[in-house]
């Protein structure tokens, strides 16, 4: 099965083609301000370099958030369009799940995405015998509350995502030797998104192409405040 996977929910705009779980090619640009103009040329270059076309793809996958509101909409609309044209299946994968699939270390994996002002998007996973299992829900909370939750586990936890870099000192101070880090896994990759998509398809998981925001946008919060007046 050939998979086209894209990620647009962070500063990184990345695209990849996989054959099941094997990466064929991945391209990326690290510039949050250019996703709307760079995504399609990046996909075109990917097809040219792999000698494939959109009609060779069996599954289309994108990350659906949490992350950049604009980036999420760009990614989902692109994947929906490809699915409509080719009549092939489409899946949306949480950015937090994609981050977890970037690590191959067995045990607990905590995905942290910075949400500004000491807040993070958070989810906990366990990797056992090559199988990733989510523990609990997707959350948006303060980093201090998250560390209190993880203290209860009293087990080594591997942190991934940009939140693991920003709050590294706090995590180490709170969890001591139970706080583990994989510094190279700080951004979401199209490859790991594709891996998560392939797994979700095999497990028949509900991975609808609906944005996962967890927090309201600034515009929504402003409208709510105005309506209170």
Task: Please describe what this structure looks like.
It contains eight helices and ten strands. It has helices at 35-50, 69-86, 95-100, 143-153, 162-166, 168-175, 190-202, 218-228, and strands spanning 2-7, 12-19, 22-30, 59-63, 90-93, 107-114, 119-128, 131-142, 157-160, 179-181. A five-stranded mixed beta sheet has the order 3-2-1-4-5, sandwiched between helices. The radius of gyration is 18 Å and the shape is globular. The termini are far apart.
Helices and strands in order, then pairings?
Blueprint: E1 2-7, E2 12-19, E3 22-30, H1 35-50, E4 59-63, H2 69-86, E5 90-93, H3 95-100, E6 107-114, E7 119-128, E8 131-142, H4 143-153, E9 157-160, H5 162-166, H6 168-175, E10 179-181, H7 190-202, H8 218-228
Parallel strand pairs: 1-4, 4-5, 6-9, 9-10
Antiparallel strand pairs: 1-2, 2-3, 6-7, 7-8
The geometry reads as globular
In which order are the strands of the major sheet placed?
3-2-1-4-5
Nearest-integer average pLDDT = 89
As residue ranges, the low-confidence spans are 216-229
Helix-strand makeup class: alpha/beta
Measured as a percent range, the helix fraction is: 25-40%
Number of helices: 8
Beta-strand portion reads 25-35%
Q: What integer value in Å does the Rg equal?
A: 18 Å
First-to-last CA distance:
54 Å
Order of helices and strands: EEEHEHEHEEEHEHHEHH
Biggest sheet record = 5 strands, mixed
The count of DSSP E runs of length 2 or more, i.e. the number of strands, is 10
